[in-house]
Amino acid sequence: xxxxxxxxxxxxxxxxxxxxxxxxxxxxxxxxxxxxxxxxxxxxxxxxxxxxxxxxxxxxxxxxxxxxxxxxxxxxxxxxxxxxxxxxxxxxxxxxxxxxxxxxxxxxxxxxxxxxxxxxxxxxxxxxxxxxxxxxxxxxxxxxxxxxxxxxx
Length: 153
What we know:
Residues 19-53 form a coiled coil. One of its GO terms (molecular function) is guanyl-nucleotide exchange factor activity. Keywords: Coiled coil. This protein has 153 residues and is mostly helical. It is built from six helices and no strands. Helix 1 packs antiparallel against helix 2 (76-85) and helix 3 (93-102) packs across helix 5 (120-132). The longest helix has 62 residues, at 13-74. It is rod-shaped, with a radius of gyration of 34 Å.
């Protein structure tokens, strides 16, 4: 006699009913496990899709940044306009000044050209750009060296 799988004739009617309930519960649990596996697979597929979309957005943003830098280096005013139109930069004076201060990929001469324009917006950006520099506790010569060093970067 196999104790793990007894013959149905060896079971009482109560035991047979209990065995049927156990088999039914086992079947339900296996179905629930399969549903969970399917849901997990769907979640992973959605994550993969989201990551692909995010990578695509990041690549597009990097491409737009590169295009904007090229435009800025050729014509600073058009470059700033491009950055604003593509929502890579806000029209806020402080934001533009910080962007120029960082100068990532921007030609220093083009930055100077933009800041040297006599348009009221450009003058405000120039003031904000100067405010980005740290001149506290520096004499005039040291402050000029800071500006000169920034222009070389």
